[in-house]
Amino acid sequence: MNKQIKKIYFDPYLFFSLFLLSALGLFFLFSASNADVSIVSKQFIYVFAGFVIMILVSQPDPDIFRRNSGFLLIFSLLLLGLTYLFGPEINGAQRWVRIGPFSFQSSELLKLAVPIYLSNFLFNKKLPIQRNEILISLLIIFFCFFIVFRQPDLGTALIIACSGLFVLFLSGLSWSFMGGSFALLILSSPFIWNILLQPFQRQRIATFFNQDSDPFGASWNIIQSKVAIGSGGLFGKGFREGSQTQLNFLPETETDFIFSVIGEEFGFLGVLFLLIIYLFILLRCFYLALNARDRFCRLVIGGLSLTFAANLIINLCMVVGLLPVVGMPLPFISKGGSSLISLFFAFGIIISMSTHKKFLPQ
Amino acid sequence: MIFEERQIEKNNFSSRAIILFVIIILGLFAVLVQVFTLQISGYNDYQLAALKNKNYTVPVQALRGEIFDRNGKVLIKNEPTFDLITQPNLIDDIDSFLDEIQPVIFLSESDKFQYKKLQKEKAFANKELVLKKDLSAAEIARFNVRSFNFQNAFIAKRYRRISDYPDIFSHVLGYTSRTEDAYKSMPEIPRSHWRDAELVYAHGLIKGRTGLEEIYEDHLRGSYGERVYEINAMGKLVQSLSITKPLKGSDLHTNLDIEAQKSAAKFLGNRRGAVVAIDLDSGGINVLYSSPTYSINQLSNGMNEDDFQILINDPDKPFFNRALKGRYPPASTIKPAIGMYGVSKNIVNWDFEIKDPGFFTLPETGRVFRGWRKGGHGKVNMHKAFLVSSNTYFFSLAYQADIEELSSHLTSLGFGQKVCLDCFDEDQALVPTPEWKYSIMNAGWVKGDTVNLGVGQGYLLVTPMQLANYASLLAKKGAFNEPAIVKQEKVKKSLKIWQDNKFNDSDWNKLHQALLGVIESDYGTARSIRDLKKFQVAGKSGTAELVSLDSKEAYQEVRTSELLRDHSIIIVFGPMPNPKYAVSVVIENGESGGAVAGPVAIEVLKSLINE
After folding, report:
1. Which of B291, B332, B568, B584 is catalytic?
2. How many CB atoms lie within 10 A of CB B472?
3. What is the ipTM of this complex?
4. What is the pTM of this model?
5. B81 forms bridges with which residues in the sheet?
6. CATH classification number, B258-309+319-609, choose in 3.40.50.450, 3.40.710.10, 3.60.130.10, 3.30.1330.10
C-alpha cells in the first residue's frame, strides 16, 4: 500500500505535449482577444485547474470509472435535465450550470459518460456483439444525442454521438450492420433536414455549399476566416499583426475561429507546427490504446481519444471551409473552461488507464 | 473470457483502431492541403482581400484655382476662415453639448436648429459636422482656452470662395455650391467613401455651377488627393496609413477689366440692362455685365433660404444673365448690316439717293412703315441714312432684299448663333427665316416681314454679346477674333474673317466714316455723347420698339407703363481711326438709344482706354 501511494501515475509524453499546447493556447488567446489580460488570466486558471484535475484523475485505479460508469451517466443526464429546466438562456440556448463564479456546460460531462458507460456495457460481451446489445447502445447514444441537440447544441451533440459510435465500432460492430445503418441515414436525410434541423442550422449548411451567396450575412464568418488564413501566407503576419483578427473582421476569434488567428499571424509554418503537436498526441493515444491492460481500458482510451480527434478535425475543417459552421472549440486552444476541463478529465482517465498495470490476468 | 478469445478481440480492436486512425490522418491531411491552398496558392488573392477589408481610402479635397483680371488683379480667391467642427457620432447628448458650448461660441436658435437637423440627417460613423462657420477672433480665443471641455469639437481652417467684387462680376464669374457628384471625378474611390472626404472648403465638396466656375470646372478644380485609413470591422477609423497630397487647381487669367466692369455697373446703375466690351486685338472680353445682379459670395458660401427666395422672386430677375441670354430687337443698330447687304448685292451704292417722306408704303398692301421723325429727312443717301438713322431708306432697301439671302448674311455676322468661346449658357437668339416662321406661327413669310428686318424690328432678336461681336466685326473690317473671357493661351481661338468681293476696302472706309458721323457729326443721332470724351468714337444707336405704333401720341400713352417703353441700345467702337475696343450696351425700357445707352458705352470705353 505504501508503495502505491508514493507512486505518481504520469505519462511524460502526453503531459509535456499538452503543456506545450496549453501554453501556446494562452499565447494565441492573448492575440485573439486583442490583448485582453483578464480573459487570458481566467483561461490560465482553467488550464492550471485542468492540469491538477488531470493529475488527480489519473491516480486511482481505472476500475473506479468502470464501477461508477452507470452513476456517471445518470448524474450527467440529471444535470442536463436541470439545466434544461432552470438554466439561464444565453443566445437562445440553455447549456450552462452556474457554480459560484464559474459556469459549466453540462453537456460536456456526457462526452465522458457516454463512452465510459458503453465501454463498461460492452467490454465483457461475447464477440461479435449481439443485436440486442447494439440496439440498447444505439438507444442510449441517440437519447444522449437528442437531448443535447435540442438545447440546441449541434456541435456537442455530434461529438457525443461520435464518442458512443466509436466505442461501438471498436467493440466489434459488424460491417453489414454499419452498411445498413449508413444507407438508412442517407434515406432519412430529407427528414433530418426538414424536421430536426433548426432554421439557423439549415442556413449554415446552405451557406457552406454556396459561400459567395451572401458575403455580408450568412457567409461572412467563413469568408473572413478564409481571408484571414489565406492572407497569412507562409510565415504569417506576426504576433498581434493580423489585420483580420485585430480589426475584428474575423468573428469569434477567441473561440471557434482561433485557428484562423493562428493561420493569419503565424502562417503555414505555424499551422504545420500546431498540427504536428496534435498528431503527436493522437499517436501517443493510439499507442496507449493498443497497449492497454484490458478490453475496457482499450475501449475507453480509444473512445476518448477518437472523440478528441473528431472534435479537433471538425473544428479545423469548419474554419478552413471544408465543413459547414458548427459551434465547436479548438481543443486546448479556444477560450472556455468547460470543454478544457472535460478534455483534461478525459486525458486524466487515459493516463490512469495506461499507467495502472494488472499483474494478474483476470 | 478465455485467452484465445481475448487475442481475437485484441486483434479485432487493433485493426479497427488502425482504420479510424488512418481516417483521422486523412482528415488532418485534408486540412493541411486546404490550408496550403489558402495560404500558398491563394496568398495573393487573400492578401488583397484582407487589405480591401481594412484599407479605407478617402478623397482629399484640393483648393480651387483663383481667377484674375487682365491686369493680374484677383477676382476670386480662397479665403481662410476658422470653423468649429464637431464629431456628432461621439457626442452622447446633443442638447446638453449645445448648452455647454453656447457661452463660448455664440449660437442663435436657428444655428442650433440647423445643426440638429443636419445631425439627424447626416450623422454617419465618421462624419464631421460644422457647428459654426467663420468664427471671430474672440470666439477662437475663448474656445482654445476651454477646448479640453469639448473633446468632440475642434477648430479647423476651412476656405471660402470669395470675390472682392461679389456683385459686379456675378454673372461672368459664377458661383460654386455643394455637389453630390464629386465621386465621378475619381471612380477608383467608392462612392460611399466620399461622405468622409477630407475637406478644405467650409462648404464641403463644391463645384462650379455657373459662369467661369462652371465652364472651367475641370481646370479650376485641381485633383483630389487620397488618404488611406485603417478601419476596423465596424467601419471606425483606427489610424491614417498614408496620404497622397491633392494638387491645387490651376489659376485662370481672364481678359476681364475690373475698372471697366466697375464703370459699366456704375453707369448702368440700378436699371435693367447689359454691357459687353471686347478687346479688338485679342477678341478678349473685357466687360460682361448684366444688371441687376446678386452676390456670388453669398451664393457660394451658403445663402439663407429667405434671401434666396427674395432673389428668385425678384421681378427684375437678377439671376437672368441679360448679356448672354437677353433677346432684344437690335433696332437701328442692325442698319450697318443691312447697308453691307445692300452694297454687296448691288441693290444700292453709296451714291444712291431716295426721298424720305418719313414713311415707307409697302406697294403690295399699302401698309405704311413709319420713320422716327415726322416729315422725314428729305433727300437721303446711305451715309446720311446712317447719320440720321433714316428708316425709310432701310425699309426700301430691305424691300428689295431676298429674305433667304438676308438671313444668311445676318448669320454670317454672328447673329442667331453662340459667338463666345467660353461663356456659360449663352443664348443663340434668333435670325428669322420663312421656314422658321412657318414652323412656329404656321404662317407664310410676307414682304412686310423683310421690310421690318431692315430697321431691326420684327422677328430678329439678338443678345448684347452678339451685338458686341458684331461691333468688333465692323470695327476690324471683317477680320476679327472670336470673343473669349479667358486669355488666349487657354482657349483655342481662330481669326474669323467676314469677306465679300462686292464689299471692298473703300466700302469699309465709307462705313466707318458714316458710323463715326453718327456720334461725331452735327447731324448724328448719337451726337449727344460727342463731348463726353476726348477721343473719337464710331457707333450706331437704336431704340427697340416693344409695341408697334403708328404715332407719337399713341406712344405717349404706352410709355406710362414702364415695361412697355422702348429698349435703348448702342454699339460703339473706338478710339477712331484705329479702334481698340468695341462695346455694346442695352438698357431695357431706357428709350432713345443714343442718349441713354450711349453714355454708359462711352464711360466703359474711357475706362478701357484708361483715360
Report:
1. B332
2. 29
3. 0.93
4. 0.77
5. B158
6. 3.40.710.10
